[in-house]
Amino acid sequence: MTDVTTTTAAAQADGAGSGADAAAPTRASLETMPLGKAINAGLRRAMADDPRVLLMGEDIGTLGGVFRVTEGLQAEFGEGRVVDTPLAESGIIGTAIGLAMGGFRPVVEIQFDGFIYPGFDQIVSQLAKMTNRHEGSVTMPVVIRVPYGGHIGAVEHHQESPEAYFAHTGGLRVVSPSTPHDAYWMIQEAIASNDPVMFFEPKSRYWPKGEVDFSAPHAPLHASRVVRTGTEVTLLGHGAMVSVLLQAAEIAAAEGISAEVVDLRSLSPIDYAPILESVRKTGRLVVAQEAPGFVSVGSEIAATVAEKAFYSLEAPVLRVSGFDTPFPPAKLETLYLPDADRVLEAVDRALAY
Length: 353
Fold this sequence. Notes:
The chain is α/β, with parallel strands linked by helices. The protein is built from 13 helices and 14 strands. It folds into two domains: about 1-215, Thiamin diphosphate (ThDP)-binding fold, Pyr/PP domains (Rossmann fold), CATH 3.40.50.970; about 225-350, Rossmann fold (3-Layer(aba) Sandwich), CATH 3.40.50. The strands form three sheets. It has a seven-stranded mixed beta sheet, sandwiched between helices. The protein has a five-stranded mixed beta sheet with strand order 9-11-10-13-14, sandwiched between helices. Helix 2 (about 35-50) packs parallel to helix 8 (about 180-190). The longest helix has 15 residues, at about 35-50.
């Protein structure tokens, strides 16, 4: 993998294939596109703006990645900046750490969520701790893109939600967009960060389209946000779960129940201000996630809200999650993953107190 650094450094030095002199893409200020294409556009913009940004991962070059998120970027920026790596997650992340120490800003793709475990030690033992180990004199501007979650009918190790492992690890930032607009802006903000960012991409949301405003102000990387207002219960989630919560809120509205929906967006750090403000207004909170519920992001949020908004709660904080088992075969995924019905059942229980 040493050749990657040498080749990339040479490309940066002479500008060949680096995209360093390329103008930022000219486009309309508002476009409709899938989330996967929005990430592609965000990566392209970041690479055009900064020659230190390079991409690494299995099959991300010629193929454009399993989900085609990096499609066309190698042809545009060259093999020195969009690097097809061996099938070795630990080696990929270790190389990214070395590149970051050498002044680059690598963006790594883990092909599927369950493939991240061979690189887990590099992430939690090295990447997360390097800056602290050097008392701030070394920065780690590394982004690790992780397609995660279910609803694609895949086999074992292809539909997991491992985000809690990394949110638990000090030194890592952990985020997950739920819309194309957020995906476009958040990937650029993650790349601009001097801290390592785990960028969890809800793979079931790669294809549904949404508006991307290329000129509008956008929420900061670690801001949670109210995406639907309501008065009786707060529904909170991240990634693909946000669309499920919006569906549940729509059904609840038809039954005369007013539900507010909050998109978490950042899992570490968590922006609690909008969450607490919403809970103090509604008096009830349902936290939903695809990941198992035991020792999870949802558990942490439930505990914090109970601590900081106890006197505003009209009911216990309720959690809706995947089950505390390995992810099941594809035929059973609809039973395992939370849907609008399970969310609404929790809403009914909260309102019954």
